[in-house]
Design goal:
Largest sheet: 3 strands, antiparallel
Shape: globular
Number of domains: 1
CATH topology: Preprotein translocase SecY subunit
Radius of gyration: 24 Å
Oligomer: single chain
Distance between the termini: 8 Å
Helix content: 55-70%
């Protein structure tokens, strides 16, 4: 593998793509240290020292920019939310579905996603300022004068929205000029960049550092093995091609297979669910302070309780099925098979083949959806274990939960991005007749 990586680096175009990706990620990390104008650093430090789990989610989606309340504090979260909304609307709104099926329709839907990301970024900017202000134990606002000073408010909102669009643009640059998967790689970089600090906090603050460190190693090891096993799991559907005679030559007649993955959508449902599960706490910041708003903040902001982890599991489970249905429907496997003279033995071509593929896909997706949901709520299981066996020495947040150093979502994103990146490098090497990058 290392030899193949050296061969990849020797290729000028692949090396340039790797360099472009590295430069963009380094630039992104520099910008995450540029704070929004008017931020009270003492109030920000007070909020961050609370080890709030919700801030960890926002930091994950922003690539670590929330820790400095940077101009990139929104990260790519508004874009992900806008993408979810449009993907939900396309099957429902006939006009959008017709646009998607037109030549160049996917580019139009993508453009609408960019447009929708702007108001979503505006809403999240206001919500984040309100959330940080409410979490400040001193009672003061995180940005003094926000809301009362029109010029300051406009400056804060415009810079945060511009930061979001810049984060999206950098992600697209990685996709087009780098090694691909730009949005995922930005999130991946934020997770990896924060992991050492989270691990140091876990060991340094915990009253049982040896136990927490051992738990962290066990969780990471078992999770990586399970993730790779499920991610690479494939159900092969046999396909037979009929013989065709043209002149004196005979074509077809061979047998191949359709590989249906157990988890064909990778880490996308987790990113979607992570975005949606954070939204109630943002909406609660706009409500008048009271018991109802406080209960929503405590549940979805602090990431505790059966309601939060149950909702997270159901969101991951549902998004896995939803996105798989969209992917299988857009591929048009049955139509392509019928056009090429192929058929599944024992199944009629056309509609019956499509129904059979969907039925098999749903069965194997059930396993993938349950797995993703369980991986996502591993921190909840660790909380239960800590409350049962270490109730007297339990600490909230990253400092008391070994699973929050990377989180189950973060592990799947990290492993998924690494596997996808290796496959893209493999494709570049195969085109140049090198040995396979992955074995």
């Amino acid at each position: 593998m290392l030899g193949a990586l050296q061969n990849a680096v020797r290729l000028p175009d692949v090396r340039n793509r790797l360099l472009v990706t590295g430069v963009i990620l380094v630039f992104y990390q520099f910008v995450t240290h540029v704070p929004v104008v008017g931020v009270d650093t003492e109030a920000l430090s007070n909020v961050l020292n609370q080890n709030n789990s919700f801030l960890g989610v926002l930091s994950l989606l922003s690539g670590g920019a929330v820790d400095n309340f940077s101009v990139l504090a929104n990260g790519v979260y508004p874009y992900i939310t806008a993408s979810i909304i449009l993907q939900l609307l396309v099957p429902i709104v006939p006009q959008l579905e017709a646009i998607q099926k037109e030549p160049g329709g996917q580019e139009k839907i993508q453009r609408y996603t960019y447009y929708l990301a702007i108001p979503m970024a505006l809403v999240q900017s206001v919500g984040q300022v309100q959330i940080f202000s409410r979490l400040h134990t001193g009672g003061g606002p995180i940005i003094p004068g926000f809301g009362s000073d029109p010029l300051l408010t406009l400056s804060v909102l415009s810079t945060m929205v511009a930061g979001t669009m810049m984060a999206i643009w950098l992600g697209e640059l990685i996709t087009e000029q780098g090694i691909g998967n730009g949005i995922s790689i930005i999130i991946f970089a934020g997770i990896v960049a924060r992991a050492p600090a989270n691990l140091a906090r876990l060991i340094g603050v915990s009253a049982r550092p040896a136990v927490d460190l051992g738990m962290f190693i066990i969780i990471v090891t078992l999770s990586i093995i399970a993730i790779i096993y499920i991610q690479e799991g494939v159900r092969r559907i046999p396909v037979q091609y009929g013989k065709r005679v043209r002149g004196r030559k005979q074509y077809g007649g061979g047998q191949q297979h359709i590989p249906l993955k157990v988890n064909p959508v990778g880490m996308i449902p987790l990113i979607f669910a992570q975005s949606i599960i954070s939204f109630p706490a943002i909406l609660a910041s706009f409500l008048p302070q009271g018991d109802f708003a406080q209960s929503i903040t405590n549940t979805f902001g602090n990431q505790t309780g059966i309601a939060y982890w149950g909702s997270f599991f159901l969101l991951v489970f549902g998004f896995t099925f939803f996105y798989t249905e969209i992917m299988v429907g857009n591929q048009g496997l049955a139509e392509n098979l019928q056009r090429q003279g192929g058929f599944i033995p024992g199944i009629r071509p056309g509609k019956r083949t499509q129904e059979y593929i969907l039925r098999v896909t749903r069965r194997i997706t059930l396993v993938g959806a349950v797995f993703l949901g369980l991986i996502a709520i591993v921190p909840g299981f660790v909380d239960v274990i800590n409350n049962l066996f270490f109730a007297t020495s339990s600490v909230s947040g990253v400092a008391g939960n070994a699973a929050l150093v990377l989180t189950g979502s973060g592990l799947i994103i990290v492993v998924g991005v690494v596997i996808d990146t290796m496959r893209q490098l493999e494709a570049q090497l195969v085109m140049r007749n090198y040995e396979r990058f992955m074995r």
